Amino acid sequence: MSNITIINPRIARETQDLQTLSKEELIARIQQLESHVTQLRNLLKPKFTSAKEDKTSGSKVFDHKKYAKRHVLLQVAYIGWDYAGFVVQEHTEKTIEAELFKALEKTRLVESREMSNYHRCGRTDKGVSSFGQAVSLDLRSNLSEGKGVFVPDGHQAKIGNNDEIAYVGILNKVLPPEIRIVAWAPVSKTLSARFDCRQRTYHYYFPMANLDIQSMRLAAQYLIGEHDFRNFCKMDVGNGVIKFHRRIMDIKIEAIDNLADSYSMIRLELKGQAFLWHQVRCIVAILFLVGQGKEEAKIIQELLDVESNPRKPQYGMASEVPLNLFSCTYSDEDCQWIYDSETLRYVISGYQMLWTENMIKATMLREMLQSLEKLVGIKVEHQLKGLVQGIEPKTYLPLLKRQKCDGHLFEKFKICLKCTKPS
């Protein structure tokens, strides 16, 4: 038996493959592996750092087993312009979710994300903001009974305590200024922020510019109801989304100031139970084309007719910066939000500072533009430039005459693989 060598076929094959590589190819392979190792170290670094700090500081380890837990909803507001989206990502810590859990763990409200029974209502993308994002999770509780309160196995709840932890206040003290908890609600242990949401409302803000708002309103009405929105989204087959029927309950386009000129700000409000990936931004992009007179209102009907138009024409999406997940609605029986006036004043004060900074910039630019327009003697209405992705062609080509997605179709679902989100 001593002369028997056990060979791992995979390792042997990889060694043989490496021997066939040139010097340049080997260097490239090593650099690729080093990059991968660096990525793994960055992912593990926070855990090692926090463990080291706990050991060196001599601080007493917090015992979560001395407390009950409570299943709650949190209303999370955030200005997402400088963040890489809501959801935690491997390549960056600059996400809303990462900051939220950093605050939750720092305040000892959760032991870890894995043990928190966590659900989020929506996955907002890079640059998108929210006033009413909702998350459900189990938090540490001072109580021994009450809605959403439970005592896990091995835990011992405090008896006779009538004051619940001030969840909103303590979280806002440690969150970045762009992220704030607005309210909380005790809910049943089975409630999910995602699956029990009855309605999601998005707001999209834009200047009037040269848009025909009435034509946009007319076109928008065709969107109301249940339709196949595959021509108004980016397909997300990689995450198992193969059905593209969604119901839009209402859509409104209204001015939100009294300027009544091309600088007047408009709000599009879109209500539905659920939305597809980039659905709102695609809808806004098409409505912009209608408002500019480049497409007729009936283009909405034609794109919703997936039998006649099974492949999405190529067009640029509207910018993510003006988009806001404004509210997530739950039944009154399931959720009664708790607001605290002192905490709200703190939130308002912080957001007023952000408003002041940005309003000063906008006012300064407006005055400079007014002076420039007086010099040139004509009205320039190019405020929408930059709100739609892609390069604007000199000659406009109607949507239905444009090149369609030319990738082969996934026949079972009639899905163009070229237009799907990578898995």
TrEMBL record:
Keyword Isomerase among record annotations: yes
Keyword check for Disulfide bond: no
Record-level Gene Ontology MF annotations: pseudouridine synthase activity; RNA binding
Top-level taxon of origin: Eukaryota
Occurrences of domain Pseudouridine synthase I TruA alpha/beta (ranges): 219-331
GO cellular component: cytoplasm; nucleus
Alphabetical UniProt keywords: Isomerase, tRNA processing
Gene Ontology terms describing biological process: mRNA pseudouridine synthesis; tRNA pseudouridine synthesis
InterPro entries hit by this protein: PsdUridine_synth_cat_dom_sf, PsdUridine_synth_TruA, PsdUridine_synth_TruA_a/b_dom, PsdUridine_synth_TruA_C, Pus3-like, TruA/RsuA/RluB/E/F_N
Family per record: Belongs to the tRNA pseudouridine synthase TruA family.
Protein name (record): EOG090X083V
Gene: EOG090X083V
